[in-house]
Amino acid sequence: MRLILFDLPGQERRNFYPLSLSRPIWELRCGMSTLGEKLIAKTAAADVACFVPDYMAQAYRAKTDHKVNDPAMLTGDDLLLLDGRVKAASFNLEPKGPSEVGLTDDGQCLYARISKDDLAKLKADSIESLLTAAQQNLATVKCDLPTWNYTWELVLANPEQITEDFQALGRNGIEGTIEEPKAIRGSAKDVYVGSGALIHPMVVIDAANGPVFIDQDAEIHPFTRIEGPAYIGKKSILFGAKCREGNSIGPVCRVGGEVEESIIHGHSNKYHDGFLGHAYVGEWVNLGAFTTNSDLKNDYTSVSVTLDGRRPIDTGSTKVGSLIGDHTKTSIGVSFNTGAYVGAMGLIMATGKPLPKFIPSFSWFLEGVTTKGFGKAKLYETAKVAMSRRQCQWTPAEEEMWDAIFAITAPVRDEAIRRGRRQMLSKR
Amino acid sequence: MDKSEIQTRIVKAVCQVLNIEKDMVTPQSNFVFDLGAESTQSVQLLAAFEEEFGIEMESEAALSVQTVGEAVDFIAKYVNQ
């Protein structure tokens, strides 16, 4: 059986912007791994291929071992096609069995199990045509499988997911080094320190309320407190950080200050003091000193998030922090409002008060408004420098993907720039 | 639009953004070295010119313009298209 993960253009993936602008939805993280890793583990698939929006296919090929957008993967084997938004924990379909297509009430296909024989009859040459042909020709079943629908759901589920992942992995003990004096609260069986990890003296690992998993080659500097459930990724470094419960950090992050129930993708830095709570941060993000986000409103009502720059969506939760896209950088002292949407590839300067709740991708946010700034070429130059500092390369495929993202995000950004221009000049 | 009108309107925008007097600005004035524009003010100047003339400029090219006179030539290409 071959597992085919798919993430096709549509409203569903826009609900995960700005994070899904530059990656398929299953590359989002929750707990100790990505959604895709959980789906692959759940289906026990040895052979995996995937289909993503065309504009990111080339860049994604460099980041995955799986075949990407290869129509040959849609032939020659039994297939299990699976929407990347399906929650792995709830997915219990036997990989082997008669062909069937799982459809939601509104006709969306969440999965299709197709035998090799049926596949030959469907004669499809693309993922879209295969899904359509399967719905028309195979047995369909009503499917109410739970799915991830918004990025903040991952943040809210993170503490519980870390605990589940820790238990599923079944690893504990100290394989790295903990220098004396050490302080571990709770049960030692709820702590894992991977090989090559170094815990400096005066670090508190508090596993009393949840497990703490410190992955290989991580380094935890003195006066850091890590409260479980927590996952600290490979080669990440914590600098006297106050890590409250429910964080997934890394790999290769630099984190200080106070962080609570947040997910931070690889190669992002929040080196200095400042509070980050209930936030989802992409990769290659740099948060300047004292960058802080609000995750709770003063009146304790539920937080709304504006994903498209126009209509706010009620999250139904009283705790939602910032959603910050890849490669965005903030100056010192930036204050993000509750449930802020901060686009990818942005450069954000502080204003001394909370910033607007929606900042488009590729924004040069200066003097409180979105501007064109110095353009995307300058942002690419900065991204190249940031990546080279960590021995990573900015590739032509990556630039092509970001050019496409620039075009996708242009309408809402251009509108913000025009509005910003008027605001900027009316202040003078 | 002729270049003298463009220059008049550019000078007005420059004085507004950089908070300087009109007589300090000549066609030879360099935005950074003579008029003291910081990098964020360069971005504001770009926005001011776009608003003043109702045009959209390509920011990389626009920000490579060094002097008021160059700005006149550069903007003339957009407004007279």
What does this structure look like?
The complex is a heterodimer of chains A (428) and B (81). Chain A has 428 residues and is an alpha/beta fold. In chain A, helix 3 (54-61) runs antiparallel to helix 8. The model of chain A has no long low-confidence stretch (mean pLDDT 96). Chain A contains nine helices and 37 strands. In chain A, strand 36 and strand 37 (369-371) form a beta hairpin. The longest helix of chain A has 19 residues, at 151-169. By secondary structure, chain B is an all-alpha fold. In chain B, helix 1 (3-18) packs across helix 2 (39-53) and helix 1 packs across helix 4 (68-79). The longest helix of chain B has 16 residues, at 3-18. Chains A and B meet through helix 7 and helix 9 of A and helix 2 of B.
- Spans of chain A of at least 5 consecutive residues whose pLDDT stays below 50 are none
CATH homologous superfamily descriptor of the largest domain in chain A? Hexapeptide repeat proteins
CATH topology of the largest domain in chain A: UDP N-Acetylglucosamine Acyltransferase, domain 1
- Which whole number gives the mean pLDDT of chain B? 92
Q: Which bin fits the share of residues in helices of chain B?
A: 55-70%
Biggest beta-sheet profile of chain A: 10 strands, parallel
CATH class of chain B: Mainly Alpha
Structural class of chain B: mainly alpha
Estimate the strand proportion of chain B. under 5%
CATH class wording of the largest domain in chain A: Mainly Beta
The largest interface is: A-B, 18 and 15 residues
**Principal-axes shape call of chain A:** globular
Query: Alpha-carbon distance between the termini of chain B?
Result: 10 Å
